[in-house]
Amino acid sequence: MKNGKGFQRIRYNLNLMKKFKQFIILFTVAFALSFCSNEPRDEADTIIYNGVVYTVNEKFETVQAFAVKDGKIIATGTDEEILKKFKAKEIVDAKGQAVYPGFIDAHSHFLGYGQSLFMADLYGAASWEEIISRVKAFAAQHPEEKWIVGRGWDQNKWPGKSYPTNHKLNELFPQKPVLLTRIDGHAAIVNQQALDAASITQGQKLTGGELETKNGKLTGLLIDNAVDLVTVKMPALTINDYLKWLSKAQKNCFEVGLTTVTDCGLMYNDVQTIDGLQKEGKIDMRLYVMLSDDTANYNRYLSKKPYKTDKMFIKGFKVYADGALGSRGACLLQPYNDKKGWYGFLLKNKEYYDSIAHVIAKTDYQMCTHAIGDSANRTILNIYNKTLQGSNDKHWRIEHAQVIHPVDFALFSKSAIVPSVQPTHATSDMYWAEERLGTERIKGAYAYKQLLKQNGWLPLGTDFPVEDISPFKTFLAAVFRRDAKEFPQNGFQPENALTREEAIRGMTIWAAKACFLEKETGSIETGKKADFIILDRDLMKIPEKEVLATKVVATFIGGKKVYNQQ
Ligand SMILES: [Zn+2]
Prior knowledge:
single chain, alpha/beta, binds zinc ion
């Protein structure tokens, strides 16, 4: 009873304080408006006031208010300062809620995500039988599709954990090609129709890929480069396909507070189409682009300066060193713990990566290399160091930097190489990663704090659609090293957890820096683009349990409201 009364009193006091605060704010606004009615005030387009505004500036300061004009932030300060100095048609009361810079995803596949929203969704399926029934249902709902395409299966989630064969797909779809991509995009199962369309025959040789066989017959399982043999045979895309995918993708992204995303690996024609849609005002999302490792892209871009508009910046090239840990395609220094004598493999030989690095180093472009295994990471780190030779501002990146040999961490800081990491990979893979790596090697895996120490900054992303698009999941995984099920109890390798501030910086200003955008976005400071979000709770303060319940109230890009919570 005693406690109960005490609690009531505290609540009463809180209510009183809240009322008092509201009164003060009203008073301030009224005071500022009346006081200034005689004095000329500067013209702004929008004023945001009464917020807890995390500027994410150098000192990580908070302010109450800021003013926006022509898509840019023109001043930050207290409510009184801003309301006194500016008038604006649109005045947004943040109602005491948290305001953050718009989230930036430093590693994602925006176009691929949009596309995946119109494919058979195979994520989270608990068995191959479940995959088959989902594909059947999708095919029945989309009879117009010439190919049946699906993505997201993961045999690690099935009983037995073994790869499927195309037997059932051949039986169900004797006329239509079927392509079902694994969750990491590094393996696919296809039916006989698709094998025929790509003229794949048993015994065919290729580098950086595998055509799996059983009893001398192709099973339809394709690993890494083998998948491309099929995808190049798929029908050409139309502009309406792009618009349909990107519109849905950006809608979902705005809802979770993303205002800039990276597309890690696009072809020049994808880029041209997206650029056109942005210029027509049909796509608002800001995009940092890494072009795919393809001769056509090198020929078109390397001789020119990086391409830049208000919404798009093309300055990177995305190269793949190896595959993924789940499909045992990651290239390791010592054999896999759960496959005798198997090391995984590099997708191309060392000379290739060396020559690409050499060519890109002579330009203004950034080299970004996917490296998962400790051997792949060592190979690329050595090539980068040899090419860059010490301090530089090229921000060459290693994407994922997932398994690092203990002595190799120092290779990052030697030439300011940027590890670009995705915290939800840690909490997704933690269930099986140790089976692949064993108890010793796992300690150098998903080691974000250790990587952060290398350069003092660390961009974060999700790798969506491999993971969910939600930056809140990134925050949860980075800070608490636990997943939505609150597993494991003490966090997965908690010594590699980031602080809240580090995680927020990683999702905003450090992600911007990895994309050479830190002078224009990633923080709420004068002169920056007005990309910001209002949240219904404050990530810097709420308990872990509330992180995933956090909702975006509104998302602004360049001062324009692109999402408003209903
Ligand atoms: Zn990726």
